[in-house]
Amino acid sequence: MTLRQQRFAEDVNSAIALCEQYGWPFTDFHQTDNSLSFAYIKNNNKQTVTISISEDYPENTFITWHENQEHSDHSNDTIKNIVMAINREMSVGGVERSDSMDTDNSCYEDCQERFVQDSDENEESEDDTDFIDDDNHLLEAGFDEVETNPVLSRDMEKLWGCYGRDVMEYRTFESIDEVDVEIKVSLASLLEKEIAEAWNLDRLQPMVIRLNLSLSQYLDSPKPPVLQVMHTSKSGIVSQLQKVLNDFISEQWNRVSNSLIKRLFDEAEQADRQITTSTHQPLDEATRTVHDRNIARLMEMGFTADQASNALMLNNGDLLLAVNYLMGNPASCMGPTVNSHDVGSSSSSSAKGHAPFHRQTSHPMAARHDKKVSRLHSVESRSQQKGADIIDLTSDGDDLTLVPASTWFGKKSKRIPSPNLGFLIQVYQYTRQRIPTLNEFCVVCDDAHVFQNGAMLKPSVCSRELCVFAFQTLGVMADAAESVATGAEVVDLLIAMTRSACASGRRDVIFSPYPTVVDPTKSTELALNPKSKDYEKVKKTLTSIPPIAELVQIEPGALKRKLDERNPLAYPLLQWVISSNRSHIVKLPEHRRLPFMRTSHQYLLLNSPPAKEKVFQDLKKQYGSTFAFHGSGIENWHSIIREGLVVGSGTKLQVNGAAHGKGIYLSPNSSTSFNYSRMYGTHRQKSKTSESGARFLDHGISMNCIALCEVITHPNLKKNSSIWVSPESDHVCTRFFFVYECGQCGEDICTQNATYMKVIQEAVNFRT
């Protein structure tokens, strides 16, 4: 049973249980893997309804009424909510709803209109108008008419007050004592365009977190709320975030309660009264909202609620003065402290700030010593002894190459926000913390990946054996660790890289990561294990995989069987090659290729994680950027696309000399980089007819490649004629990748030539 079918079955059981519990007039339930049918009496006639789900459940669900004239409707809601909506239409009265729920941005369908009979389509009853609020706001009057927990009401007001009314909507079901709360997290302020594209997310649409809560019990409900993460895009990130938030809420549910949140709210109001007494100026509602919003800002910078509140109190509510006080006062810069009533870990991480606020995540080297409020992510003084597990981003060491900044942000992203501003804000802040760094954690166990150059771009399963077993044998989180290759041509390239790395004389160094594959004949053991590497076994298995040109001719359902006939390890190894790729690779269509590169095998290649890309973009605004080539043998790219482009100078990864110093070697001249990739010979301009028009690679031994990178024009970029050296790996991002086969070579061009630069920039702006 797939995760989708499991969720569908759970929703069906929940819907049937509600029908039985409240005596709803539905009978004759019949369930299949993809549909639910039931009957009800209408106008003394027995009517039947069938709800059919798609692969995107709960999205694209179809509801069919088998009445005198069969008709269907579309919904993006869960089975339980659909059944509840049908029951409401059959009952007297209705449910309090907000006008905002009927907007295009809502994830709810207009249930009132959906189920009205055809004969009544042009009629409007007085009952229907009772559900609309003319002010275009959520119905607070309706909320007061039902027995709503006062802590829930205050919690919702806190979220609205701190982050705006657009971040949350709700719908009440008073007949069953439930409320659906939708928290909307904007992605535009969290993810750069290229990151969102690589993750298959529309960054202009919010990530929606729906919580099904008890209307009267709220936090005192014995079971955690049912959680649903939704987005308009079909992305594995949504599944990963769903698991992350499920674990977070389940853990926090045992730590929060109505009495705790009420006490925190009361203490905050008491602090406001103290401010009123000391300043002799009463705090009106607008001022109190600004105060809460400023506390939320400081918490997202990495300070605790107590630190934020005290600093604002000492500085008469001035946010900038409070920040300067916290940054400069040693007593306030000792890191987060836990108050006696705090729950779990004390403070929010240094998450990326929300849309109205500047999101400071970069730390350019030239600005590290500036005494400005630019290092808002740090609450430690320079003189304080750092813990062994904390990375000092303010030091001037060279170890940033091996431990990049993204690791620091990843660690901070799992810190639990303080509940001082309420449970809903806690969920909102934690969601914002986790989204930009989801790629840094295993989709199964949610532990941090361990890579030589830190996190990469794509979500994936870690190399821990339990996670590999769960993923390969049980399909756990298979939809989150989605196939990152976007076409057969890319799979072909991945196989070529893996085959070259395994056949290399330096495979002990460069064939990393080594495959981790569960034995298909004995699922409790690993057939390919990094702890006991068998290169010949990998080579033999790769050889048994037929050319991609043949694979694409096989029906998808028969692919595994065909490969099993050749070698039982062929299919699982192919799966590993695809799913372990952590870079965003797309083969460029002909009209988007760089014509002067003289090869049909041109790819967009992005592998920077969100944190690194944000650092890069900030540095680019400050110093500017240009483009240069990086040449390296194709066998090295198996590791690069999974572990990143690293500074290999002075390490076992170094192949060529380091005469120009330590760093990543680049060149504005393609001919220089061709030499580094061992494409020796004369690099003269070739006619277009010399290009290979083949769709796939021939996997010959003379295969060569180079990458076109964007590099920050930082003062520390060393330019020695045609050889450039960037000592900082964070200053170099791959953009394009070119593969040349036997007899092929590109033109000898210089990226600094205005004509070539214009073509490159146009291609980069196209991205995909």
TrEMBL record:
Keywords: Glycosyltransferase, NAD, Nucleotidyltransferase, Transferase. Residues 338-383 are annotated as: Disordered. The keyword Nucleotidyltransferase applies. GO terms for molecular function: NAD+ poly-ADP-ribosyltransferase activity; nucleotidyltransferase activity. The keyword Kinase does not apply. InterPro entries: ARTD_PARP, Poly(ADP-ribose)pol_cat_dom, UBA, UBA-like_sf. Residues 550-768 form the PARP catalytic domain. It is an enzyme of class 2 (transferase). Residues 282-329 form the UBA domain. Its EC number is 2.4.2.-. Belongs to the ARTD/PARP family. This is Poly [ADP-ribose] polymerase. It comes from Crassostrea virginica.
